[in-house]
């Protein structure tokens, strides 16, 4: 093959790659924007990224780096300080809102904006949790389920246990040399939350729950690729294991209540969820109890560990 032919082949290859990239970058646009007709002209600036992946690769790269703001900054650099951009996140065409004024509008305008979660996230947190139910049902469940953990009276019952564990852990840490503080705080808050949920449980069950929950939590912030080796696939397996553990505990509690109707032991959150009933006398199903427990575990563990870490740093 002559030199001219080689150059011709290279030109064709590079042209083919360029055309292929141009097509791939527009697949999401053709799938989601063109069907809007003239309405697409009112969309904010931005791009929908690659097919299926969208903007998730750059989002996750920034999220796990020392500069998470770089993800939004890339939109600002390309499209200006508009405060609102189109993107493709967690398998859905999305709008990113980045200014306090626009965030306030989204959070307060209930007529224009409704709460919602990606289907992939819903499968991990649970379809019977608060994140995908109508507003009235959400309000009813919050009222029924939060009494066991909200308010000074409820929390005061756990203060001695929390104090005892914090002192014990601090004493341990002083003998361990260098530690990763956030990791230790997450373990400590997990132990405390499990106590509030289930009272005392064996060390083996505690470690198993923490291991599976950590795997589940990684999957919530990952691309929803349900194939072996991917975080989302492992998270779905972890959810099944967590549900099995909680189901066995629910079964045990229900049997205990049958055997001892006069049981007056101090209630933990699991007991409260099993006993609570609405004004019509309807109690929560096992599925509702387990999904609510997993939701509260996710919300309480993540926020408590990180907030305590930041409070310690600033103090």
From TrEMBL:
GO terms for molecular function: ent-kaurenoic acid monooxygenase activity; heme binding; iron ion binding. Pfam families: p450. It comes from the Eukaryota. GO terms for biological process: brassinosteroid biosynthetic process; brassinosteroid homeostasis; sterol metabolic process. GO terms for cellular component: endoplasmic reticulum. The keyword Metal-binding applies. Keywords: Iron, Membrane, Metal-binding, Transmembrane, Transmembrane helix. InterPro entries: Cyt_P450, Cyt_P450_sf. The chain crosses the membrane at residues 6-24. Belongs to the cytochrome P450 family. This is Ent-kaurenoic acid oxidase. It comes from Populus deltoides.
